[in-house]
C-alpha cells in the first residue's frame, strides 16, 4: 500500500465496531490510518443498568430487595401507669416521701401532727417570713391522707406527665401551680385582714397539701393527650372543682384549685414544645464510640 492510502474496513480481531484513527506512520506505511482497539466493556458503566451490573453471563445482577416488615402494634402496658425509680424518678421518690408523711399523720400523736401541719402551713404569716421553705414544706403532706382523691391523681397524672416531658419539667409545672395558686389564695386573705374584712386569726389559716400542684399537672397533661381524652379529662375535673366550690365548705381552697387548673392550661405552648423535644431526643438512636478503621497499605 502506498502513502496516503486509507483503510476503509478492517476485518479480523478489530471487529465491526472498530474506530479508524489517523496517526503517525507505522508498519503499514507513512501516513496510513491505524485502527484503535475498542475499550473493554468491563471498564466503563453500562448505560441502562441502573439497579445492578452485568456479570460474565450477560445477565443483569439485581440486588436482593428486603421485604418491608409490618409495623407491630404496641400492646397496652398498664404497669406504665405507675411510677418507677428509673422511668419516673421524680414521681417515684416524691410519692415515697408522701407515703412517709402520711404514715406520720396516721400513727403519730394528734398534737404532734397538728403542730407539724401548723408549722408547714402556707398561711400569710409564714409566707411573709419564709416563703420558699414553707411552700416546699407544705407540699410534703397530703390533706386527707392517702384516701384523698388527690393522692390517686398524683400517682396517675404526674406519672403520665413525667413520661412525656421528663422529671425536671414535671417538677417545674407542679411547683409553679402549687406556688402561684397558693399566693393567689393567700394574698387576698392578707389584704382582707388589713382592710378589716377578716379577723387577724386568718393570718394563721391552716393550708397545706399537694392539691394545687396536682390540679396544675392535670391542666398541663391535657396538652399532650389526644383530643378524644383531653377534653373529657378537663371537663370531668373542672366539673368536680365547680361542685366543690358550690358546696362552699372551703371557698378559698376551692378557688385555688380552679386557679391551679388554669395555670396548667396556660403552660400548653411550653409543655407541647417540651414534648416535641423529648420525642425528638428519644427518636435518635444511641451512638457508641467510633470504631477505628484499618487502612491497608497499597
Structure in words:
- It is globular and about 90 Å long.
- It contains 10 helices and 4 strands.
- 51% of the residues lie in helices and 5% in strands.
- A hairpin with a 5-residue loop joins strand 3 (52-54) and strand 4.
- By secondary structure, it is mainly α.
Summarize the structure.
The protein has 298 residues and is mainly alpha-helical. It is built from 10 helices and 4 strands; from the N terminus they run ββββαααααααααα.
Alpha plus pi helix count: 10
The main sheet comes to: 2 strands, antiparallel
End-to-end Cα distance, whole Å, is: 49 Å
Oligomeric assembly: single chain
Number of strands: 4
The fraction of residues assigned to DSSP E strands is: under 5%
If strands are numbered along the chain, what order do they take across the biggest sheet? 1-2
* Backbone shape: globular
Q: How much is the average pLDDT?
A: 80
Rg, nearest Å: 40 Å
Helices and strands, in order, run as EEEEHHHHHHHHHH
Bin the helical content. Answer: 40-55%
Uncertain stretches: 1-35, 40-66, 68-73
Please identify the structural class as seen in this structure. Answer: mainly alpha
Amino acid at each position: 500500500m502506498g502513502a496516503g492510502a486509507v483503510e476503509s474496513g478492517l476485518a479480523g480481531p478489530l471487529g465491526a465496531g472498530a474506530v479508524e484513527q489517523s496517526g503517525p506512520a507505522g508498519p503499514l506505511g507513512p501516513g496510513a490510518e491505524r485502527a484503535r482497539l475498542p475499550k473493554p466493556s468491563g471498564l466503563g458503566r453500562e448505560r441502562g443498568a441502573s439497579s445492578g451490573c452485568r456479570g460474565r453471563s450477560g445477565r443483569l445482577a439485581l440486588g436482593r430487595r428486603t421485604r418491608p416488615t409490618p409495623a407491630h402494634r404496641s400492646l397496652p402496658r398498664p404497669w406504665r401507669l405507675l411510677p418507677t425509680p428509673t422511668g419516673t424518678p421524680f414521681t417515684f421518690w416524691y410519692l415515697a416521701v408522701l407515703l412517709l408523711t402520711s404514715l406520720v399523720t396516721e400513727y403519730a400523736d394528734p398534737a404532734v401532727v397538728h403542730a407539724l401541719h401548723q408549722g408547714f402551713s402556707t398561711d400569710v404569716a409564714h409566707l411573709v417570713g419564709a416563703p420558699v421553705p414553707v411552700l416546699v414544706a407544705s407540699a410534703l403532706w397530703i390533706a386527707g391522707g392517702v384516701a384523698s382523691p388527690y393522692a390517686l391523681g398524683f400517682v396517675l397524672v404526674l406519672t403520665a406527665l413525667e413520661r412525656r416531658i421528663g422529671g425536671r419539667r414535671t417538677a417545674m409545672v407542679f411547683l409553679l401551680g402549687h406556688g402561684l395558686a397558693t399566693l393567689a389564695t393567700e394574698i387576698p386573705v392578707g389584704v382582707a385582714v388589713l382592710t378589716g374584712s377578716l379577723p387577724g386569726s386568718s393570718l394563721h389559716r391552716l393550708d397545706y397539701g399537694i392539691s394545687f400542684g396536682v390540679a396544675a399537672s392535670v391542666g398541663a397533661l391535657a396538652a399532650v393527650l389526644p383530643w378524644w381524652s383531653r377534653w373529657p379529662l378537663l371537663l370531668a375535673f373542672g366539673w368536680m372543682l365547680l361542685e366543690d366550690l358550690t358546696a362552699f365548705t372551703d371557698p378559698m381552697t376551692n378557688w385555688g384549685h380552679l386557679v391551679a387548673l388554669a395555670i396548667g392550661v396556660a403552660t400548653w405552648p411550653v409543655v407541647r414544645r417540651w414534648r416535641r423535644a423529648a420525642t425528638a431526643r428519644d427518636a435518635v438512636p444511641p451512638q457508641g464510640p467510633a470504631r477505628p478503621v484499618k487502612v491497608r497499605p497499597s
